[in-house]
Amino acid sequence: MSLFKRRRFPAEIILLCVRWYCKYGISYRDLAEVMEEAGVAVDPSTIFRWVQRYAPEIEKRVRQYQGHRLGSWRVDETYVRVGGRWRYLFRAVDKFGRLIASMLAERRDTGVTYHFLRKALKTMSDYPPSSITTDKLASYPKAIQRLQTDGLLSKDVEHRTSKYLNNILEADHGALKRVIRPTRGFQTMKTAIATLKGFEIVRMTRRSHCIQRERRATGEIRLVNQLFGLTA
């Protein structure tokens, strides 16, 4: 409970606002109006600060419930506007669209691609890939070869370039952007990274792509509350 120490609002209200913002594609102002109708008067800027503080914390705690992923990885990058400029959001899912990892970056060169794939491999250390499907971006084969040379990726892993096989990830980019759209672009990389962590992890729990007892909204609520010690 130390995470919520000296907060004027109960932890349950804070986590509710963070989940709803990350889940429904709603502006801070609109969410503040929804809360006001429910009898809770909270300023949009306060909800913004909650998202920045607690969305990454939810992401960190839910990750332990991520569960297994299949070895057929689909990797791609999409565009996100930050500070008036387009930045690159790298994302990896398995063949069923279950999130493996994501990372926001200013560039998409070999160094950044290597760093992202290394992060994904660390996240899924118990479930390494058997194949990695990407588009034809030149940095992917170079990064994969470097990972294999460094002994971080098996030399047996097949690298495929197939737009068709990555359709599931392309469609998921669109679904994620529908949640991002009300933000009208992020102001800084720091705020974008924190918020996107919340978007990704709440979408994962909503779609039952992590281990939880119930496959309904009540299961999402119970899981998050338990992670913060709010329920037995």
Any key phrases for this structure?
232 residues; alpha/beta; Nucleotidyltransferase, domain 5; 2 domains; 5 strands; globular
Task: Characterise this structure.
With 232 residues, the protein is α/β, with parallel strands linked by helices. The protein folds into 2 domains: 2-65 and 186-227, no CATH class; 72-177, Ribonuclease H-like superfamily/Ribonuclease H (Nucleotidyltransferase, domain 5). Helices cover 48% and strands 16% of the residues. It is built from 8 helices and 5 strands. Strands 3-2-1-4-5 form a 5-stranded mixed sheet, with helices on both faces. A hairpin with a 2-residue loop joins strand 1 and strand 2. Helix 1 packs across helix 3 and helix 2 (28-37) packs across helix 3. It is globular. The chain starts with 10 loop residues before the first helix and ends in a 5-residue tail after the last helix. The model has no long low-confidence stretch (mean pLDDT 91).
Question: Mind sketching the topology for me?
Answer:
Layout lengths: L10 H14 L3 H10 L6 H19 L9 E11 L2 E10 L4 E7 L4 H14 L7 E4 L4 H11 L8 E4 L5 H14 L8 H18 L10 H11 L5
Parallel strand pairs: 1-4, 4-5
Antiparallel strand pairs: 1-2, 2-3
Structure described in brief:
With 232 residues, this protein is of the alpha/beta class. It has helices spanning 11-24, 28-37, 44-62, 110-123, 139-149, 167-180, 189-206, 217-227, and strands at 72-82, 85-94, 99-105, 131-134, 158-161.
